[in-house]
Design brief:
The complex is a heterodimer. By secondary structure, chain A is of the alpha/beta class. Chain A has 10 helices and 17 strands. Chain A has a 9-stranded mixed β-sheet with strand order 9-8-7-10-6-1-4-5-11, sandwiched between helices. The longest helix of chain A has 18 residues. Chain B is of the alpha/beta class. Helix content of chain B is 28%, strand content 31%. Chain B has 7 helices and 13 strands. In chain B, helix 2 crosses helix 6. The longest helix of chain B is centred in the N-terminal third of the chain and has 15 residues. The chains are: A alpha/beta, B alpha/beta. The interface between A and B is large, with 85 and 80 residues. Strand 12 of chain A pairs antiparallel with strand 9 of chain B, so a sheet runs across the interface. Chain B: Its main location: mitochondrion. Chain B: This is Electron transfer flavoprotein subunit beta.
């Protein structure tokens, strides 16, 4: 009788530990072993699920350094940081990463797996979802509860609230919709654990990477963005925007509309819009941009929008907090001069 | 070596249409609204046709899953140069709730059945903005994926693909059979001319059902509501650069 009691208690506790809900965050490493800023927004979304969080970092080297950075977020309830480090992860190809992630999931039975809306996570998480036979949820903008989320559809023109009935919820998080997690503020001490991970991938290989070098902040983390459209007329004229951005070192950078990218005025990774980057800076200055639906989808959550355009009827003026009608080739030099003196 | 390509096309509300959320929040108004081929799929079709013109591909099969109106979208793909089409018919409520996982299973089943070497898809559909189908098809088939492609070069049963990534671009090499999804910069799609539109009417179109393919399309998610996004209180104007600077200073932005 007594032993039966112990036995039943044991069984219950095993079941409880196995059913214990927890979240896995796909933490991202960028150049030099640093933690990608989008991971911090993802942690905020993950924390809203109010479950223990494990993080996993994939990389060819320095995952320990990335983990040490991540450890400083003591208020995020991170219990464990799994390190999957192997030279074979070069280029972080989906075919190398997904099987390892699948193993980690099979071992730990997470109820939620989250990643930021980066090209890396967008490549890997749907592939993982297919292998687990679950329908992933892209680019969430709000967590309603443990199975309900909001996301934008139709280029941000409608908000869909959905309920997932899958046992594992695989989610990418729209970075600009969640504050970045802040360091400290808690006593949690995350354990660092190496995962035995040797990728076995004969399907794909990494060849090369071309990264745009810039001293200015990333579009996603810039406080101010000066963004140019087709009306800039040439690549050379984009310098007018860089001159403005350089008045705010470390805070401001330059973006572009798709029309400007297609016309070859700037590199395509500057493109803001539904098919480019989604940004939400404190100040967005749209210069010579008419405000097509596709562009607005990428910037309409900016705190303050300024529009400078010669056409007083441009749709951009309908969403701008401050619209200035005028020729950008006159307005920009004047703006630059006056800001220099401020 | 000439490969066979399956190219996926989705019928979606035209990209230039300002969509309207239904007042009862059950969806977006689609009746009487202009629909066309998802822009990313036009790029996928164009790439498939170019591969055929370069004699890399021997046959291009277009596929679409959805209501009977999808046949118009498939006819467009045929007019652009696809050889034949497959319509997997899903209509009514089933179509409204058809989710990327189910579509991926349908495409994967057809890819196997038709024994293709390459599945070409757009990187996302501009209606649900999911950006999942290509990756899931690749996962289901255990094929490599090259997503967000801006350049594709195929030789010796391998595809060298330049892809758009955060902060720049990268080049990877994938073994065929593979899945590639098209980014906007992959190419400039052509327009179909009248003779090819006429010719397309005679090209074969097969009809299938999810059941024929042995695929369960049961939705994994419920859609609770559709809402208008909060409106921005824009529309403010300033008369001069000085006024603009003083307003921004007041707000502590500069």
């Amino acid at each position: 009788m007594y032993s039966r009691q112990i036995l039943s208690r044991l069984t219950t506790s095993t079941i409880r530990s196995r059913c214990f809900a927890s979240t896995l965050v796909l933490a991202e490493q960028i150049e030099g072993g640093k933690l990608a800023p989008v991971t911090l927004n993802t942690l905020t979304a993950a924390a809203q699920l109010k479950q223990d969080i494990d993080c996993v970092i994939f990389g060819t080297e320095k995952t320990n350094e990335t983990a040490n950075e991540l450890k400083k977020f003591t208020n995020c309830n991170i219990k464990k940081i799994l390190l999957a480090e192997n030279a074979g992860f070069k280029g972080l190809l989906s075919e190398s990463v997904t099987p390892i992630l699948l193993d980690i999931q099979k071992k730990n039975n997470y109820t939620h797996i989250l990643g930021g809306s980066s090209t890396f996570a967008k490549g890997v998480l749907p592939r993982l979802a297919a292998l687990l036979d679950v329908q992933p949820i892209s680019d969430i903008t709000a967590v309603i509860d443990k199975s309900q989320y909001s996301r934008f559809i139709y280029a941000g023109n409608a908000i869909l609230k959905l309920k997932s009935n899958d046992p594992v919820q695989i989610i990418t998080v729209r970075g600009t919709a969640f504050e970045a997690a802040k360091q400290g503020g808690g006593s949690g001490e995350a354990q660092i654990e190496k995962v035995n991970s040797t990728p076995n991938n004969d399907l794909s290989e990494f060849v090369s990477r071309q990264v745009q070098q810039s001293e200015r902040p990333e579009l996603a983390s810039a406080r101010i963005i000066f963004s140019g459209g087709r009306a800039l007329k040439s690549k050379e004229n984009f310098k007018l925007l860089y001159d403005l951005a350089d008045l705010f070192p470390g805070q401001a950078t330059v973006g572009a509309s798709r029309a400007a990218v297609d016309a070859g005025y700037c590199a395509n990774d500057l493109q803001i819009g539904q098919t480019g980057k989604i940004v939400a800076p404190d100040l967005y200055v749209a210069i010579g941009i008419s405000g097509a639906i596709q562009h607005i989808a990428g910037m309409k959550d900016s705190k303050v929008i300024v529009a400078i355009n010669k056409d007083a009827d441009s749709p951009i003026f309908a969403i701008a907090d401050y619209g200035l009608t005028g020729d950008l080739f006159k307005v920009l030099p004047e703006l630059t001069e006056k800001l220099k003196k401020k | 070596m000439a490969i066979r390509i399956l190219v996926g096309v989705k019928r979606a509300i035209d990209y230039a249409v300002k969509i309207q959320v239904k007042s009862d929040k059950t969806g977006v108004v689609t009746e009487g609204v202009k629909h066309s081929m998802n822009p990313f799929d036009e790029i996928a079709v164009e790439e498939a046709i170019r591969l055929k013109e370069k004699k890399v591909a021997q046959e291009v099969i277009a596929i679409s899953c959805g209501p009977p109106q999808c046949q118009e979208t498939l006819r467009t793909a045929l007019a652009l140069g696809a050889d034949r089409a497959i319509h997997v018919e899903v209509a009514g409520k089933d179509y409204e709730m058809l989710q990327p996982l189910a579509i991926s299973k349908l495409i994967a089943a057809v890819a196997k059945k038709e024994n293709v070497d390459l599945v070409l898809l757009g990187k996302l559909a501009i209606d649900d903005d999911s950006n999942q189908t290509g990756q899931m098809v690749a996962g289901l088939l255990s094929w490599p994926q090259a997503v967000f492609a801006s350049k594709v070069d195929i030789k010796d049963k391998k595809a060298e693909v330049m892809r758009e990534i955060d902060g720049g671009s990268e080049t990877i090499r994938v073994k065929l059979p593979a899945v590639i999804t098209a980014d906007l910069r992959l190419n400039q799609p052509r327009f179909a001319n009248l003779p090819s539109i006429q010719k397309a009417k005679k090209k074969p179109m097969a009809k299938m059902s999810p059941k024929d393919l042995g695929v369960d399309i049961k939705p994994h998610q419920e859609y609770l509501s559709y809402e208008e996004p909060p409106k921005r209180q824009g529309g403010g104007r300033v008369a001069s650069v000085d006024e603009l600077i003083s307003k921004l200073k007041e707000k502590g932005l500069i």
